[in-house]
């Protein structure tokens, strides 16, 4: 494993790790000093650059109530253009023309003469009837679409309905009573992307007259702060026929069912008012969503390109970490070496994701990452899991540094994958980034750890690492089920 070490953080950190190992073997009293040095290195510089980002103080409902304005749209378009430009620069072989064409169409979206309204809701809520009535009442420069029903077994169909609603200027969300949790989540998602929504309480005739006002008030309370009270409207698109009884002159009783007219005046008037008064805002909202979706598409492609470039770097450093810890089989020092390697890893990943880190920033970040691993219990859990795999195979466990070597490689991989996931979430334009969010990094780290804790993956990873550290381990089977040792 001949590896040229030309990275200043890497060389310095590994040198410090080796020095402490020597010191450890010279004096028994250095157990405390070694551990103190490890935690001192982990805490180095933390708190100056990696500050917890302050909360905006806004509640979710307040954020959802914000209307899209021209400034938001222009910002979204600029970010989309930047994402496409970065993709074109870093991966010109990708399908850039189609993205550019979609980007050019954004400008025409704001100048459309015809609005599109979508009728959204679950099964048997009367969506089709509501659509037909609105088409009869409001048709000038407005088209209405009836989406597939939500909450069906076909996930693709449901997602298609949500996507269609997101590209519409106005959504009529049809319910037949108080919101279920599933309906509330869909409604919340729509408002999060600044979709203009009316809640239509259909089939109110199926509710006792004395209970209708109660149900309507419950609906308005559930959406308070996200949707105005006047945008929650009761109606009956197809009222149930009314049974009529009439006594005849001969004394007989005649009964029949009499069709009732639709009760949709409230919804019709509110929709007309919105179209007349909020037309520009509706078009801006749709343009913003289209721009954000196009930006997300370009960013997903760019992230995949960058991830393909980042993975070989992570693998390189995980083997360096394994070799360093294997050479220094002291449990208190492998994390120190891993922290130093993680710092250099962060610098290299920052270059790929165009987020430059100074040496001190990288040291602080890697130290914070190490503290997160300790705080979340990932170091202990990883060591126990890897140790249990190795312990059942005496041939591999006799090497004193095997556990430390594999653990260091595994922790370095977790750090690298977590940094990739975190950096992929950031804005492409460095000027628009808010700094390092430690809380979010911790969440990402936990998710990555859970995704990489499968027994089959760990067994394969342990075998790979042992092969790197000791070629004699290549033929060892780490699957106890096979009975080979």
From TrEMBL:
Signal peptide bounds: none
One Gene Ontology term, aspect cellular component: membrane
Superkingdom of origin: Bacteria
Keywords: Membrane, Transmembrane, Transmembrane helix
Keyword match Iron: no
One Pfam match: DUF697
Entry's localization field: Membrane
Membrane topology, record value: Multi-pass membrane protein
Entry keyword Membrane: yes
Protein name per its UniProtKB record: DUF697 domain-containing protein
Species of provenance: Lusitaniella coriacea LEGE 07157
């Amino acid at each position: 494993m001949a590896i040229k070490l030309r990275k200043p953080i890497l060389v310095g950190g590994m040198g410090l790790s080796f020095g402490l190992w020597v010191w450890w073997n010279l004096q028994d009293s250095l157990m405390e000093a070694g551990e103190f040095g490890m935690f001192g290195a982990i805490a180095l510089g933390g708190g100056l650059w990696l500050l917890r980002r302050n909360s905006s103080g806004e509640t979710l409902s307040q954020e959802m109530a914000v209307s899209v304005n021209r400034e938001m749209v222009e910002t979204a378009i600029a970010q989309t253009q930047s994402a496409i430009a970065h993709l074109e620069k870093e991966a010109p072989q990708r399908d850039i023309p189609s993205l550019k064409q979609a980007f050019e169409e954004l400008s025409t979206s704001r100048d459309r003469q015809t609005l599109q309204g979508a009728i959204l809701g679950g099964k048997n809520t009367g969506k089709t009837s509501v659509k037909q009535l609105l088409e009869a009442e409001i048709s000038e420069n407005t088209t209405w679409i009836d989406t597939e029903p939500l909450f069906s077994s076909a996930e693709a169909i449901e997602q298609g309905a949500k996507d269609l609603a997101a590209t519409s200027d106005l959504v009529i969300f049809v319910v037949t009573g108080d919101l279920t949790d599933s309906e509330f989540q869909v409604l919340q998602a729509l408002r999060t992307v600044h979709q203009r929504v009316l809640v239509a309480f259909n089939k109110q005739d199926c509710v006792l007259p004395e209970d209708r006002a109660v149900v309507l008030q419950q609906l308005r309370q559930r959406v308070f702060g996200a949707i105005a009270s006047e945008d929650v409207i009761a109606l009956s698109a197809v009222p149930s026929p009314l049974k009529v009884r009439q006594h005849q002159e001969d004394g007989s009783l005649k009964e029949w069912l009499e069709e009732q007219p639709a009760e949709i005046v409230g919804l019709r008037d509110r929709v007309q008012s919105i179209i007349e008064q909020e037309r520009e805002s509706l078009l801006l909202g749709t343009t913003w969503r289209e721009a954000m979706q196009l930006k997300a598409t370009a960013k997903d492609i760019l992230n995949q390109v960058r991830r393909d470039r980042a993975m070989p770097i992570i693998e390189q450093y995980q083997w360096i970490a394994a070799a360093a810890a294997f050479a220094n089989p002291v449990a208190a020092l492998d994390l120190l070496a891993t922290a130093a390697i993680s710092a250099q890893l962060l610098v290299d990943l920052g270059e790929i994701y165009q987020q430059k880190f100074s040496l001190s920033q990288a040291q602080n970040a890697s130290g914070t990452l190490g503290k997160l691993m300790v705080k979340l219990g990932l170091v202990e859990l990883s060591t126990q899991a890897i140790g249990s795999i190795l312990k059942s195979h005496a041939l591999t466990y006799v090497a004193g540094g095997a556990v430390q070597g594999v653990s260091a490689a595994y922790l370095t991989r977790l750090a690298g994958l977590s940094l990739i996931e975190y950096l992929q979430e950031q804005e492409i334009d460095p000027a628009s980034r808010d700094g390092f969010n430690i809380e979010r990094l911790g969440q990402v780290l936990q998710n990555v750890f859970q995704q990489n804790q499968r027994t089959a993956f760990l067994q394969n990873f342990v075998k790979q690492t042992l092969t790197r550290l000791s070629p004699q381990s290549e033929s060892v089977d780490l699957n106890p089920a096979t009975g080979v040792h």
